[in-house]
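Duplicate of #3305? Posting structure anyway:
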C-alpha cells in the first residue's frame, strides 16, 4: 500500500506531501489543483514505463509543467506589500515526483539540461538529474538502496557503494535502462509495482465508442483504458470473478435490470434488460450514462485487482442519482485495492465521506499554490528528496 505521495514544482503543486489511506478522495473547488495532482501521479507512473519525457512533451514540455511562480514567496509578497517577482535563483530548476509505500519508496528529480556541447534539436528535453530507491517510509542516508545521479547509478553493498552503471542516458529513467534483475533487483520491484497502478480517466460512450459495437473477445481480466472490451471483461467476471457481486451492482443502480453477454462468431455484445421492455437493449442503444456506469461496474470488479486504482472524475456523464451507488461500488473495490478518486461531484463526495475508510484530501489554492486544507507542517508525513 502507498503511504505517501510527494510532488514539487509541478504546476500548482509547488510543494506537497500527502499521506494516503486505503480509500482516498481528492476534492476541492475549481482550479484548486485536482487535475494537476492526477496528472502528477500519471507522470510518476510514466517514469516506470519509460515515457516520462514523452509525457512531459505532450504537456507542453518542462517549461509549461514547471511551477510558474517565484522560487521563494516572501510574507510581504503574500500580504501584497511587494509585487510577486522572480529573484535570482538560488537552487536549480527541479520538478520532483515521489512516493513511498510500506516497504520502499522512489523519487525522481528532473531539470533542464546544461547548454549542449553538440547541436541538438532536443535541447529542451528534460534531463533526469537524480533518482533514488529506498526502503522504509522516507529517504534517509542509511536506507538508500539505489542512488542515481546523472549518468551514474550505485547500489548499497554492505557499508560501501557499488557502481552498477556509469553510462546511463540522462533523458531516461533507471526503469528502462536497468531492467536486469540480477544487477539491480530493487529497480525491478519498484518498476513492477508502479506498472501495476491502473488509471481510469475517460471511458468513451459516444455513438462510435468501441464498447457499443460487437467486439472479438478473449478472457479480459483488466478492462482497457477506454472501456472498449467491456463485453469481454463482463463475461470474464461472470466466469472467473465475483459474479454475484457484479449482478448485485447492476440491480443496485438499475433496480430490476440485468446484463447478459451474447456471443456470436467470437464477437461479444452486451445486452441490457430493463423492466418494462420486451427485448433487451444492445450496447448501441444505451444512454451515455448507463453505458458508462456499466463500464465502471466492470472496471471495479476486475478479477485482478491492482495495488492502486486511480479514478479521475468518475462522475462524468452520470446522472446524479447514480452517484450514491457509484460510491458503494468504489467502497467495495477499496476492500481489495487501494483507491485514489478525484471528484468534484458533491453527491459522490458526500457518499464517499460517510465511509469510515475514506480519507478526504480537500485541496485549496493559496497564493496560486495547491495545498491540502487543514494540513499543518506537523501533519505532513516526513519526506526528503534525493540531493543532486
Ligand atoms: N505551470 C503552472 N504553474 C503554476 N500553476 C499552474 C501551472 N499550470 C497550471 N496551473 C494552475 O493550475 C490550475 C488548474 O488546476 P487544475 O488541477 O486543473 O484544477 P482543478 O482542481 O479544477 O482540476 C490553474 O488555475 C492554474 O492556476
Ligand atoms: Mg480538473
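Output from current build:
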Amino acid at each position: 500500500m502507498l503511504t505517501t505521495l510527494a510532488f514539487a514544482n509541478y504546476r500548482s503543486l509547488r510543494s506537497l506531501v500527502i499521506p494516503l489511506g486505503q480509500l482516498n478522495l481528492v476534492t476541492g473547488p475549481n482550479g484548486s489543483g485536482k487535475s494537476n495532482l492526477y496528472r502528477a501521479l500519471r507522470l510518476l507512473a510514466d517514469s516506470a514505463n519509460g515515457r516520462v519525457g514523452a509525457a512531459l512533451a505532450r504537456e507542453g514540455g518542462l517549461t509549461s509543467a514547471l511551477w510558474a511562480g517565484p522560487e521563494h514567496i516572501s510574507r510581504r509578497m503574500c500580504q501584497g506589500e511587494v509585487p510577486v517577482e522572480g529573484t535570482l535563483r538560488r537552487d536549480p530548476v527541479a520538478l520532483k515526483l515521489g512516493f513511498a509505500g510500506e516497504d520502499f519508496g522512489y523519487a525522481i528529480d528532473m531539470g533542464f539540461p546544461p547548454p549542449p556541447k553538440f547541436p541538438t534539436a532536443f535541447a529542451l528535453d528534460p534531463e533526469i538529474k537524480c533518482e533514488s530507491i529506498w526502503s522504509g517510509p522516507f529517504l534517509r542516508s542509511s536506507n538508500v538502496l539505489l542512488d542515481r545521479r546523472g549518468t551514474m547509478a550505485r547500489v548499497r553493498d554492505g557499508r560501501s557503494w557499488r557502481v552498477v552503471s556509469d553510462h546511463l542516458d540522462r533523458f531516461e529513467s533507471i526503469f528502462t535502462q536497468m531492467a536486469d534483475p540480477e544487477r539491480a533487483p530493487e529497480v525491478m520491484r519498484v518498476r513492477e509495482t508502479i506498472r501495476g497502478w491502473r488509471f481510469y480517466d475517460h471511458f468513451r460512450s459516444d455513438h462510435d465508442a468501441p464498447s457499443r459495437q460487437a467486439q472479438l473477445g478473449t478472457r479480459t481480466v483488466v478492462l482497457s483504458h477506454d472501456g472498449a472490451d467491456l463485453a469481454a471483461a463482463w463475461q470474464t467476471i461472470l466466469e472467473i470473478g465475483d459474479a454475484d457481486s457484479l449482478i448485485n451492482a447492476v440491480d443496485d443502480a438499475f433496480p430490476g435490470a440485468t446484463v447478459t453477454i451474447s456471443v456470436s462468431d467470437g464477437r461479444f455484445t452486451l445486452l441490457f434488460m430493463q423492466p418494462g421492455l420486451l427485448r433487451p437493449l444492445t450496447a448501441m442503444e444505451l444512454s451515455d450514462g448507463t453505458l458508462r456506469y456499466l463500464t465502471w461496474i466492470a472496471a471495479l470488479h476486475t478479477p485482478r485487482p491492482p495495488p492502486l486504482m486511480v479514478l479521475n472524475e468518475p462522475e462524468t456523464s452520470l446522472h446524479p442519482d447514480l452517484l450514491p451507488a457509484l460510491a458503494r461500488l468504489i467502497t467495495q473495490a477499496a476492500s481489495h485495492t487501494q483507491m485514489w478518486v478525484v471528484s468534484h461531484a458533491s453527491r459522490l463526495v458526500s457518499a464517499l465521506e460517510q465511509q469510515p475508510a475514506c480519507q478526504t484530501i480537500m485541496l485549496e489554492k493559496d497564493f496560486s499554490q495547491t495545498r491540502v486544507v487543514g494540513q499543518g507542517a506537523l501533519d505532513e508525513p516526513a519526506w526528503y528528496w534525493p540531493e543532486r
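Confirmed duplicate; merging threads. The longest helix spans residues 34-48. The pocket of adenosine-5'-diphosphate (ligand 1) is lined by residues 11-12, 28, 30-36, 66-69, 368 (CB under 6 Å).
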